[in-house]
Every structure is written in structure tokens, then in C-alpha cells.
Specification:
The two termini are 52 Å apart. The protein contains 5 helices and 2 strands, in the order αααββαα. Helix 2 (53-63) packs across helix 4. It has a two-stranded antiparallel sheet with strand order 1-2. It is 66% helix and 8% strand. With 250 residues, the chain is mainly α.
Length: 250
């Protein structure tokens, strides 16, 4: 019993150490002081979800910011292709100049100056000797656009994989809850029967202790199943680009 107690104390010390490290990491992530106190809210609820894999995939592809960023990159590359093609065509510039001169304060002209003149200058420029260079520039921009499209495809594939993995993990965690509930019921009944047998002096104290240990293990498994379910739910909603625990889109 003393050995088991010592092992439990050691496990508790390790758990408290891991908790402090997790709190420090959270403070760092939130740009808070690393020693800022963190109040942890225990979540031990089970709320069934009506998510389907198809819905999760669709929402993930619609809401993930990485996909939006990749799509914007494609639009930018498309504009760059259009700008590179502009060198194929002539450029035309028009300027209008208005000049007023004079030797007096009202600038009304003089024997040597007209009081008012104007001119319009139009210039057309077309460099036909650099079409090869322009063609290479356009082809280079098209290649960059193709790379951006491939990046978008890879991002979408990654989102689909992440969503499916999270969805399967949620299903597994939900099944684990049902299994842990059944095991807890059996452990509680076994503990009750062991106590009754001990009262009737047909069972030893060791059997009661073993039954209580089994009940404690079943309760621990139940808590772990609930924790894993809520973590899996938060992971899935993050993979879909939704707010945690709400199922709402950002």
C-alpha cells in the first residue's frame, strides 16, 4: 500500500508539473506574462453533435483562412499575368500645357510675350523589338500562377485530411464514452456486491479493496473519455474554421 501511495504521489507531482507547463505555454500563446495565473474550467459534459463528414468537409473548405489566402494569391498572380501582357501593346500618353506670361502683375502679356498660349502633345510608343522578352515575362507569370493553383490544391487536400482525421477521432471518443459508461455501471455494481458479501462475511476485505480500485479506475476512464471527447470536438471545429464548442462560423 505504501508503494502504491508513493507511485500515486509521484504521478500527481508529474501531473502538476505538466499543468504548470501547459499554463505557461498558453500565456505565451496569448501574449500574456508567462507567470500570469490561469483559471482552468473543467469541462465534463457530453453534448452529442449532428455533424456529418460531408458537412464538416464543406464548412472546412469554406471557412479555413488558409484557403482564402491561397485563393487571393491566385488572384494576385492573375493580375501579374495581365500586367505582363500589357507590354505587348503600344503605350499612348497625352499632355496638355497652358502658359500665361507677362511683365505686369496681372500677367497680360508684353511686347515680347503672348498673354496666353496652350499646346497639346500626344505620344505613342510601341517597342516591337522586345516581344521575345515580353513573352518570357508572361510565361514566367503564368508558371507562378500555376504554382499558386497547385498550392491551393495542396492546402485543400490538407484541410480535407485534417477534417476527416478530426471527425474520426470525435467518433472514436464518442464511442469510448459509451464504453466507459457501461464499464462504470459494472464497476459500481461489483463494488456494491463486494460490500454486501463482506457484510455477510462471505468475502474478504481484499476483495472489497480490489473492487474499489476497479471502481476508481472505471471513473478515471470515464473522465478521460469525456476529456478526449471535448478535445476532439474542439479540434474538429478548429479544423472546420469554427469557434470552439459553439459550432458557429467565425
Amino acid at each position: 500500500a505504501e508503494v502504491k501511495t508513493a507511485e500515486s504521489v509521484q504521478s500527481r507531482i508529474e501531473a502538476e508539473h505538466a499543468l504548470r507547463n501547459a499554463q505557461a505555454r498558453m500565456n505565451t500563446l496569448l501574449r500574456r506574462d508567462i507567470n500570469e495565473p490561469v483559471a482552468v474550467v473543467d469541462v465534463l459534459t457530453y453534448k452529442p453533435t449532428a455533424y456529418t463528414l460531408g458537412e464538416c468537409l464543406e464548412r472546412g473548405l469554406r471557412s479555413r483562412p488558409e484557403i482564402g489566402a491561397a485563393e487571393k494569391q491566385i488572384q494576385m498572380k492573375d493580375k501579374e499575368v495581365q500586367l505582363a501582357r500589357a507590354d505587348y501593346y503600344p503605350s499612348v500618353s497625352v499632355s496638355y500645357n497652358q502658359i500665361q506670361e507677362g511683365d505686369t502683375w496681372d500677367v497680360k502679356g508684353s511686347p515680347y510675350h503672348e498673354p496666353y498660349t496652350w499646346n497639346v502633345v500626344a505620344v505613342a510608343k510601341w517597342n516591337v523589338f522586345e516581344w521575345g522578352k515580353n513573352l518570357d515575362s508572361v510565361q514566367g507569370k503564368k508558371i507562378e500562377k500555376s504554382k499558386a493553383k497547385n498550392t491551393l490544391t495542396q492546402v485543400k487536400d490538407g484541410v480535407r485530411l485534417e477534417v476527416k482525421q478530426s471527425f474520426l477521432a470525435l467518433e472514436a471518443a464518442e464511442q469510448a464514452i459509451f464504453v466507459s459508461e457501461k464499464a462504470l455501471e459494472q464497476a459500481e455494481e461489483n463494488f456494491r456486491m463486494s460490500q454486501e458479501r463482506y457484510r455477510e462475511q462471505v468475502a474478504t476485505a481484499t476483495e472489497v479493496t480490489d473492487a474499489e480500485t476497479l471502481l476508481t479506475s472505471a471513473r478515471t476512464n470515464r473522465y478521460n473519455a469525456l476529456y478526449q471527447y471535448n478535445v476532439a470536438l474542439a479540434t474538429l471545429e478548429r479544423a472546420m474554421g469554427a469557434r470552439p464548442f459553439t459550432g458557429q462560423q467565425p
